[in-house]
Each structure stands twice: as structure tokens, then as C-alpha cells.
Write a structure and sequence with these properties.
By secondary structure, this protein is of the alpha+beta class. The chain is about 60% helix and about 10% strand. It has 23 helices and 11 strands.
């Protein structure tokens, strides 16, 4: 097993931070649990074990390195099964990873572009502008004078990722098999989600494509600006983008000094989120403060700048529609409608009892709605709804998990900028307007117009489709008739068996009573055994062979 050295380091770190106390239910029982307890004995009195459990887990992930930091960030999005305090602590993980020095950035650029870097850039900074777990960013200037940033994948990181994922999958399998709550926590699913995300981040061309699409969606928009991608110089492990100058959205003191309208800025963030989700169905799913800047022009009407589009969420038209209708129903406290929509769209099983689900929704929402709207966390409410739906075997889709995470980020950022932000008041008009636009005759006509070419294309095949349908219907009818005949035969056979059993029981009962009589007993003693056998055979033939 090639991952044994890594496993030993993981066990040492887990023991030192006493992660068995963070979530005791995750400690496997039997021999495995006993071995880990023995392993942790030398660190029983280590100072790290005195820290709060959630902090211990965060520090352990940071010590294990970039891959586990990124995994902790992803894990923080799974509020459908994580305790809130643990999810909040993991969400605070930052990509403050020391930059790599070797090989030099110039060597990486030349290897990716297959030419000397001076043929493309007039300047290339050796020192990184920023360093994350998977990639690193450097400043540069093109020969044409344009200022750009160069994003490069860390050398050798793919091998490390693959090895660590193998180890995580192995551990997840053990947890799922041996831990009582393992199946409910779905550790394999979590690791699979992580694998998809982390491997996508290794493909910078995919990130560039996401950025280009997001830029196109908000082209000429005063709400959001996305830097330009220089495709001619970009590769799978190298991304060249326009350099932007803005104020980090978390630097509130600088924003105030620039005269930025923080209330307007917070409301704009909410509008951007709902525009991405319900108008474009394409949303930036990693909108933490490190990826968001504020343009320095027009402080009265501030514009956001988004970078790092590696993680993008998207909703199907049906999920988009059901989500909007669910949110509107929640706003109006129509819990019956919420329950019906969950069943209708397949988020919960079809056999779910609507009245029970409705009662569960009401018990979650009503205590929250007793607070003033400005004090209600929209994101927290969504998390609680997912938790409640999980009790009814709701299968949380990855797109909904990303949506939940993004909404929590947006709401947290909005309240940081403007604590009095009322997300409900800001969001409700947008949702109502979206619902009205959806039902406009022009919208319905456009949808009809979009589908007409497909329908016309299918017209020549309609007669054959009808014939196939009729043929299949006849075949199904024949199959059903055959099944019904077999069912009736089985019923008749079962009735004959029951009747035979009754006759048999009566005969046996009669013989039993007869043998109890002294006269019969004396008579039988004088009859030869062959006669008795012949008589028994006659009874059998008369009773059973008719």
C-alpha cells in the first residue's frame, strides 16, 4: 500500500489533536477503534487536545497540507449533515499556503508555452501575487503593454492529489462500513464530490471557460465585472488573465474611505446572486471575500469584480423553477405548497406523506418567522429546510449544495457590509418579478417558438411513432392478459389446495375419533394389515383423485 506513510502522518495528526473527541460517533468500533485509542495515548495530555473540537479539526487539516485544507473547505459546504459550529469553523479555512520557489515561474511558463517567456511578456514577476492550495498567481505584462496575471498549477500537485484521494476513499469506505452513522453521513459521496472539484481545478482551461461565460453573461452590466481571458497564451496548467485593480470586499475601512455606498453594495451582491441563479442558471459558487473585489469608480453605484471561477454551479430549468416557487411559498408561509413542490419535483420520494412533511416544514419555519425579518438568516433557513427534508429521505443534489453554500457566502458578506441588510425584502421583489416574467404571454410564446423547430423535425416520424406506440400497447396488453391468466390459475390452484387440506383434515379427524372408540379398536385388531392398507388407498382415491 503506497499510501501507508501518508496514513501514518494522518493518524499521528488525528491523535495529537484528539479528533476522536471531535466526533466520537465517527470512531470505528471493535479492533479498529481500540487500535486508534492506543495510538492516541502518547498525546493524551497534549495542549492541542484542550482546544474546542471544531478548532482542533481545522488546525489538523491545516497541518496536513493544501489538499486537506481544500477538503475542509468543501466539507464546510455540507451543512446537510455537519453541526453548524463545525461548518462555520471549517468555512474559515483560508488558502494561506506558502508559495513554491522551485522550479522558477519562468521555467513553468516556458514549458507550458514551449517558447522563451520574453517572446510574450515584457515583464514577469518572480514573487507570487497570491498563493493557494492548488495554484499560484504572478504579475506580468504583455509585449503590447497589457497588464496581466499568470496562474500556474503547483508542480507535482496532481500526484499528491491522486494519492491523497485514494487514501480518503479508503478511509471513507472504512467509515461507511464500520461506523454506525457512516451510511447516513455518506462519506464516499463527499470524497467523490471533492475529487470532481479538485480535479476540475487542475484544468485551468475549464476555469478560463467559466470566466468567459460569466463575463459574457454580465457584459456591459453595472453589477459585475469579470476579467478577460487571453486564450492564445492559456494552457491546461497556465491561465493568463487581465489584471484588475479593486478594493477587497472585506476591507470595509477602505471602502468607507472611498465613499462607497455600503447599503447599495450589499443589495447589489444579492441582486447579482439571484440574477446568476434565476436569469442565467450559471453562478459563481466560490464567492468568499478573497475572490470578490469592488471597482474604484462610481462609489455611489458600486460594481463588483469576481475572480477565480474554478467552481461554478448550474441549475436545470426544472430545478430552477421549483426552487423559485419553493422560495416564494416559504416567503408566503404556504407550507402545504412547499411540501407539494418537494414531492412534485422529486426532491423527496413520491410516497412521502404530504401532511407530515408540511407539519415538519411548519415546525422549522414558524419559530424563525417570529423574529424580525432583518434578523432572519435566509441561508440558515435554507440549511434547516434541507435538514428537515433529509429526514424524509431527500437526496440533496450537488447543484443545490453549491447553491446553499453560495447563498450563505452572499448573505454573510452582505451582512458584513451592511448589518441591517434585509435579504428577504431585497429578494422577494426579484422572485415575484421573475415569476411574473415566467408567466407572461411573450415568455410562453418564446418558449413555444424555441420548441417548434424540434416539433417540425419530428413530424415525419410521428406516424411510425404512433405505430410503435400501438404495437407496444398491444404487447403490453398481451403480457398483462397472460399475467392475469397466470394469476387466476394460481388462485384456483391455491383454492384446490385449501379444499384438499380441509378434506384431509376431516378424514384424519374422523379416523382419530374412530380409533378412540373401543368397538372400532377391537374390530381393527381382527383385520389383516393388507386390508387396512387397501381401505386407506380407497379413501385416498375417493377423496383426492377425483
Amino acid at each position: 500500500m503506497s499510501h501507508i506513510p501518508r496514513l501514518i502522518k494522518l493518524l499521528n495528526t488525528a491523535a495529537r489533536y484528539r479528533l476522536d473527541q471531535v466526533a466520537p460517533q465517527l470512531l470505528p468500533g471493535g479492533l479498529t477503534g481500540m487500535l486508534f485509542t492506543l495510538w492516541a495515548l502518547p498525546w493524551r495530555n497534549h495542549p492541542a487536545g484542550k482546544l474546542p473540537p471544531a478548532v482542533r479539526l481545522r488546525l489538523a487539516l491545516e497541518e496536513l497540507g493544501p489538499i486537506y485544507i481544500k477538503f475542509g473547505q468543501l466539507l464546510s459546504t455540507r451543512r446537510d449533515f455537519l453541526p453548524p459550529e463545525l461548518a462555520d469553523e471549517l468555512q474559515s479555512l483560508q488558502d494561506k499556503v506558502p508559495g513554491f520557489k522551485s522550479p522558477a515561474i519562468t521555467s513553468l511558463v516556458e514549458a507550458a508555452l514551449d517558447r522563451p517567456w520574453q517572446e510574450i511578456f515584457s515583464e514577469l514577476s518572480i514573487e507570487p501575487l497570491a498563493s493557494a492550495s492548488v495554484a499560484q498567481v504572478h504579475c506580468a505584462r504583455l509585449l503590447g503593454g497589457e497588464e496581466v496575471v499568470i496562474k500556474v498549477i503547483r508542480p507535482g500537485i496532481e500526484k499528491t492529489i491522486v494519492e491523497d484521494i485514494k487514501l480518503l476513499k479508503w478511509i471513507a469506505g472504512l467509515v461507511e462500513k464500520h461506523v454506525p452513522v457512516g451510511r447516513r453521513l455518506r462519506p464516499r459521496e463527499v470524497v467523490d464530490d471533492y475529487e470532481t472539484i479538485i480535479l476540475d481545478e487542475l484544468n485551468l482551461l475549464a476555469e478560463g471557460a467559466n470566466a468567459t461565460q460569466l463575463r459574457r453573461n454580465f457584459e456591459h452590466s453595472p453589477l459585475l465585472y469579470v476579467p478577460k481571458v487571453y486564450w492564445e497564451y492559456s494552457r491546461i496548467n497556465l491561465l493568463v488573465m487581465e489584471r484588475i485593480y479593486g478594493t477587497p470586499v472585506a476591507d470595509i475601512d477602505s471602502l468607507r474611505a472611498q465613499g462607497v455606498d455600503l447599503k447599495k453594495l450589499a443589495e447589489t451582491g444579492v441582486e447579482i446572486f439571484f440574477t446568476q441563479v434565476f436569469n442565467h442558471s450559471f453562478f459563481h459558487a466560490d464567492m468568499h471575500p478573497g475572490n470578490i473585489f469592488v471597482a474604484r469608480h462610481s462609489p455611489d453605484n458600486p460594481q463588483y469584480i469576481a475572480i477565480d471561477c474554478a467552481i461554478i454551479g448550474s441549475l436545470s430549468k426544472s430545478d430552477q423553477q421549483y426552487l423559485a416557487r419553493n422560495l416564494l411559498a416559504i416567503f408566503r408561509r404556504d407550507y402545504r405548497k412547499v411540501a407539494e413542490l418537494h414531492v412534485e419535483c422529486g426532491w423527496v420520494p413520491r410516497d412521502t406523506k404530504v401532511h407530515e412533511f408540511e407539519a415538519a416544514m411548519r415546525s422549522v419555519c414558524e419559530p424563525i418567522f417570529e423574529k424580525p425579518l432583518k434578523d432572519i438568516s435566509f441561508g440558515y433557513l435554507l440549511v434547516q429546510l434541507f435538514h428537515t427534508a433529509g429526514r424524509f429521505n431527500m437526496e440533496v443534489q450537488p447543484s443545490l449544495v453549491l447553491l446553499q453554500k453560495t447563498l450563505l457566502n452572499v448573505e454573510g458578506l452582505g451582512r458584513q457590509l451592511y448589518p441591517e441588510l434585509d435579504l428577504w425584502t431585497t429578494a422577494l421583489p426579484f422572485l415575484e418579478d421573475w415569476n411574473r416574467r415566467r408567466m407572461r404571454p411573450s415568455t410562453l410564446f418564446n418558449a413555444l417558438k424555441e420548441n417548434v423547430p424540434d416539433w417540425i423535425e419530428q413530424l415525419p416520424y410521428l406516424p411510425q411513432l404512433m405505430i410503435d406506440t400501438l404495437t407496444q400497447s398491444k404487447q403490453l396488453s398481451a403480457i398483462n392478459a397472460n399475467l392475469e391468466q397466470r394469476r387466476q390459475d394460481e388462485v384456483r390452484r391455491a383454492e384446490r389446495e385449501r379444499a384438499g387440506s380441509v378434506r384431509n383434515g376431516l378424514i384424519l379427524a374422523t379416523l382419530s375419533v374412530a380409533f378412540m372408540l373401543p368397538q372400532v379398536n377391537a374390530l381393527l385388531l381382527g383385520i389383516a394389515m393388507p386390508s387396512l392398507l387397501l381401505a386407506a388407498g380407497a379413501v385416498y382415491l375417493l377423496c383426492f383423485k377425483r
